[in-house]
Amino acid sequence: MALLLVFDKLGMWLAASALAGWPLRLFVWTALPLGAAVTLTDPVVSSSIVTGPSPRNA
Asked: Among 46, 44, 51, which residue's Cα sits nearest to residue 13?
């Protein structure tokens, strides 16, 4: 489980960095902290944000 979380968070960090840095044309060293800032860190909160209830069920 811990191994899955480590690779998941690492992947989300790199993906967020790439998605933030590419359109904004940031340097890699600038995009990495930005990606770290927007990466979700709490698995419980992130799963509810990603899969949250549909508007009909809320």
From this structure: 46
Structure token pair of residue 49: 């944000």
The predicted model scores a pTM of 0.63
Structure tokens at 44: 């419980």
> Of all residues in the chain, what percent are helix, strand and coil, respectively (each to 5)?
75, 0, 25
Q: What is the pLDDT along the chain (58 residues), one digit of tens a residue?
A: 677 677 888 888 999 999 989 999 999 999 999 998 988 766 666 666 666 665 565 5
The four Cα atoms 44, 49, 54, 56 give a dihedral, to 10 degrees, of: 90
